[in-house]
Amino acid sequence: MSQEPQKISTSARRSIVCRMFLYICLTLTLVGSIAGTLLYSIQFEREIEREHQEMMRITNTFKPAIAHALWQYDKQQLRLLVAGLQGDPGVSYVRAVDTTNFSTEAGTRPYHSHVTRIPVYYDELLVGDLSVAYFNGSPWLKALENASPYIGSIFLLLLVLAGALVLVLHQIVTRRITKLARAVNSRIEHGILTPVDISPSRSMDDVDQLMVAFRELNEQLIKELERNKLAQHQLSKANTELEDRVEERTEHLSETIAQLNQTVDELNTTQSQLIEAEKQSALGGMIAGIGHEIETPLGLCLTMESCLRNDVQAVIAEHPELAKTEEWSRVSESLELLRENLRRATSLMKSFKSVSAGHINDDNDWIYIHKTISDLLRSLSPMLRNHPYEIRVNCPEDICIQASPTAITQVLTNLITNSLKHGFSGRAEGLVVITVEEDSDNLIMDYQDDGIGLSREAAKKIFEPMFTTCRSDGGTGLGMHLVYNIIKQRMKGEISIEPSDTGVHFRMVMPISKAQRRDKGRQAIY
Description:
Blueprint: H1 4-72, H2 75-86, E1 91-98, E2 103-107, E3 115-122, E4 125-134, H3 139-190, H4 206-318, H5 326-354, E5 366-368, H6 369-379, H7 381-385, E6 389-394, E7 400-402, H8 405-423, E8 430-439, E9 442-449, H9 456-461, H10 479-490, E10 494-497, E11 504-511, H11 514-525
Parallel strand pairs: 6-8
Antiparallel strand pairs: 1-2, 1-4, 3-4, 5-7, 8-9, 9-11, 10-11
């Protein structure tokens, strides 16, 4: 840690000098490149002009003689002149032609743009033209050769200038800033909280002003740090006292809250027990009243129906001819209707009794859902044997719930009965899927079939007591109400109808343990 500030200072100093030197060199290189390009362009233009002047000088020497030969149609003379012109250094091809296509040439015509056509006049009369290809070395290379000393001198001068500028900037700026950085790093390394000793020069330039401003800022920061340390010490002392007080009061408050929670739990348990007992008492009283008011006359009616049927059979035995009369047929039909309706009333009375939660056994034991469902399906096998329906169960064997198996059995029995009686009505086949899974502290049971499904009105009223879509077929409307009461009241869970493309889909969510159901019941009360 002690060497890190010095490393940072040295790196910063070198970085600034290198960057300044790099930036200056790049700038001067750009300037030198522009100057060298201009100088090279001037030399190139001069070389092109010199080449053109040389070609014109050579051509003008031979042009009068060539004009005379063209005028005189002296082909022998013209060939000698053209050969002499082509023999000049730099001339690679010459062709002379008059206006009547009388021509001669020497050399090989180059396939590039260096062939120059010059009109030939004899006594101010155009007699033909002269084509000359002149090439005495690349003008690019000659221009570069002539400009290289000047360009090298420019770059050397710019490099010296860059070094001088960097040296001056280092002496004026970076050296003084490095001195300031070393003084700061020394105090950071040794933990010295004294102002930085800075001696500005007499010129008081920008760097001196920066150093003076830094020293003033350093002094203000030191004073502020001392004030903060004092305030932090006082705050720490106050926090310690406050924490002691808070800890003491929190301890008393925790004890009070624990006592209150214990009292509230006891009150909730008592209230839940009282409410449950009141519900059971009210339901038991209602069923007892119904049993007293209905079962007695209902039993008497069943007895009288049996006696009446025996008397009628005795009369038939003594007078067989009466069995063929119309009056006797109406009597027999009336007796059958009376017997059937009495049986329906008795069955309805049993359904009323089954709604009571008291019929469900104790739910302190833990049961395996898969085994409970398997036992239920075995008990329902006689009812399912005559129907080509499939019941598929997707349930891990290790899922447990603290509940009465009777409650689960009653729920699934009513759902399966509804699917067979309503969902698969008039169908030769059908599928029921029961899916069970765990989610946190809840057990989720999905019941689905691919039957005819529910109408919108039936979906709204399916859990209401006495609601049924098959009352004419003996439906009482108590099965789904019993399912609702078991899930909501006994299991403290939720049951809902989920959207489904085919058939019906019930989702039941129930707490796994009895303690969770008890806590949920307390929350519902409050």
